[in-house]
């Protein structure tokens, strides 16, 4: 099945896809079982390295305001660094319940693209610049979008910072210059 057929079959098209289509930004759809909630799990399910699958995390800045942090698989969010970038000592992770309440989205389907209307600060780990394309959540569980890194940064008005810390389970990094092939 081609990309357009796959997109047309998606019932209740997510706002992230509507936004990309409105802005004429190319993207690829990656489907996976909706019970997978980790970047590493998504990477395995769609056959790409975890370094190009970015998870969307909701943190609370030192002033109590929500922040979106995009971190690749194999890394975890450095809360001290994020807090420092926000002018304080340390940020904290929002609980799953708080993240869902603040965003209106389910954990495992939180997306910076779907939250663009909230105008929250968005930070993307600097490792994203090593890849022409990365995968991010489409705003619903079981659906990621491959998008050119530069276009994502511009669209969500992200700050690029070293906010990720290497996770013990991390694997070797690879550089992708074109979007991986979709599955299914």
Describe the secondary-structure layout.
Elements: H1 3-9, H2 15-22, E1 27-31, H3 39-46, E2 54-60, E3 66-72, E4 75-77, H4 79-85, E5 92-93, H5 96-103, E6 122-125, E7 133-137, E8 143-148, H6 149-156, E9 159-161, E10 164-166
Parallel strand pairs: 3-6, 6-9
Antiparallel strand pairs: 1-8, 2-3, 2-5, 4-10, 7-8
Q: Can you walk me through this structure?
A:
The chain is an alpha+beta fold and 184 residues long. Helices cover 25% and strands 24% of the residues. It has a single domain, classed as YbaK/aminoacyl-tRNA synthetase-associated domain (YbaK protein, Alpha-Beta Complex), CATH 3.90.960.10. It is globular. The C terminus is likely disordered.
Number of strands: 10
Q: Please identify, by name, the CATH architecture.
A: Alpha-Beta Complex
β-strand percent reads: 15-25%
Query: By CATH's scheme, which homologous superfamily applies?
Result: YbaK/aminoacyl-tRNA synthetase-associated domain
Number of discrete helical segments: 6
CATH first level: Alpha Beta
- Which sequence of strands runs across the widest sheet? 5-2-3-6-9
SSE pattern: HHEHEEEHEHEEEHEE
Query: Distance N terminus to C terminus?
Result: 7 Å
- Please state the average pLDDT score: 88
The name of the CATH topology is YbaK protein
What helical percentage do the residues reach?
A: 25-40%
Brief descriptors of the model:
single chain, 184 residues, alpha+beta, YbaK protein, five-stranded mixed β-sheet, three-stranded antiparallel β-sheet, 6 helices, 25% helix, disordered C terminus
């Amino acid at each position: 099945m081609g990309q357009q057929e796959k997109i047309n079959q998606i019932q209740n098209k997510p706002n992230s896809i509507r936004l990309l289509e409105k802005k004429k930004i190319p993207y690829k759809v990656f489907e996976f079982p909706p019970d997978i909630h980790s970047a590493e799990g998504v990477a395995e399910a769609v056959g790409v390295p975890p370094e190009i699958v970015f998870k969307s995390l909701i943190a609370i800045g030192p002033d109590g305001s929500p922040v979106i942090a995009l971190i690749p698989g194999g890394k975890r969010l450095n809360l001290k660094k994020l807090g420092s970038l926000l002018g304080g000592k340390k940020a904290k992770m929002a609980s799953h319940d708080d993240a869902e309440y603040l965003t209106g989205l389910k954990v495992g389907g939180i997306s910076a693209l779907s939250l663009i209307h909230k105008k929250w600060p968005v930070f993307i780990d600097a490792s994203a610049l090593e890849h022409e394309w990365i995968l991010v959540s489409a705003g619903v569980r079981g659906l990621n979008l491959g998008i050119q890194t530069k276009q994502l940064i511009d669209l969500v008005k992200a700050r690029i910072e070293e906010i990720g810390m290497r996770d013990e389970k991390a694997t070797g990094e690879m550089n992708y210059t074109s979007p991986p092939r979709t599955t299914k």
